[in-house]
Amino acid sequence: MKEVSGHKKLWKFILILIGVCLLLLVILVVFAGSSRLETIEVQGNTYYTDEEIIERVVTEPTDQFALLLYLRCRYQEQERIPFVEYISVEMTDNHSVLLTVYEKILTGCVKVMGNYLYFDKDGIVVESSSEKKEDIPVITGLEFSRLILYEKLEVQNEGMFSTILNLTRLIDKYELSVDEIHFGSNLEVDFLCGNIRVRLGRKEMYDEAAAALVTILPRADELEREMTIDMRDYTPGDRVIGTYEE
Predict the structure, then answer these.
(1) Residues 176, 191: Cα–Cα separation, whole Å
(2) Residue 178 exposure: Cα atoms within 13 Å on the Cβ side
(3) pLDDT in tens, 95-114
(4) Greatest extent of the chain over all pairs of C-alpha atoms, in Å
(5) What is the dihedral sign for C-alpha 86, 89, 90, 96?
């Protein structure tokens, strides 16, 4: 008799559990039905348009409901998107979600066999793409012993990455239009800006030269000619003269 009583208690517990699950399911369906997605806001994106980000995130039929989209993105592994570290999804109200894009911080890229390999401040190769991203300079003059995705670039001088990081920060700070950063055999630095080559040489700090280029480059650009600007021995107040390439 005790065994039969135990079975009854077990079945009673199972029925209660099923009832609770069904109730929760009904509540979820009702709430989801009242949260039909109407508005999607995107922020933090520079490499992709809002539409491209939405296409990457909203992929399932159930994503037409704000709650179900939120739950799926919170608990399911996200699709890997080049140049994006993570996308957070937040419900701002029952019918709206906010997508916040956290992009990978890229320092530069190198071109190898038609592809651009992008690396971060530590020299880790984080992405490979056939497309050249704007505002990310191509680094030339580096000598590699190997190039492997998600591993550190092995170059001739480890200190080059701190120099590259310093240069790219200055380029961003002063909004300089630099297409290429070239390192010479003795690690002298050249900027290639369209038809203009700026010879910066090898310095401890490039801040003063970069600040001067804010006014120098637009004037040189107006001439619409190939030109070399020598700033290897530049000090603030110097009159910088460019050499025309005939």
Answers:
(1) 10
(2) 32
(3) 899 999 999 888 889 998 88
(4) 107
(5) positive
Residue for token pair 């979820």 = 28
Q: Which domains does the chain have, with CATH numbers?
A: 33-103 (3.10.20), 108-244 (3.40.50)
- Of 107-111, 218-222, 234-238, the poorest mean pLDDT is in 234-238
Q: What is the pLDDT of residues 198-218, one digit of tens each?
A: 999 998 889 999 999 998 898
* Token couple for 145: 């012993």
Single out the residue of 231, 232, 228, 233 nearest to residue 245, CA to CA: 228
> Which ranges of 82-232 does DSSP label H, i.e. alpha helix?
160-173, 207-222
Residue 96: phi and psi, rounded to 5, are -140, 145
Residue with the larger pLDDT of the pair 18 and 50: 50
> For residues 194 and 224, what is the distance between their CA atoms, to the nearest angstrom?
10
Contact 92, 98 (CB under 8 A): yes
User: pTM of this prediction?
Assistant: 0.69
| Tokens read off for 42 | 């995107």
How far is Cα 25 from Cα 33, in angstroms, rounded to an integer?
Answer: 12
How do strand 115-119 and strand 125-129 relate by DSSP bridges? antiparallel
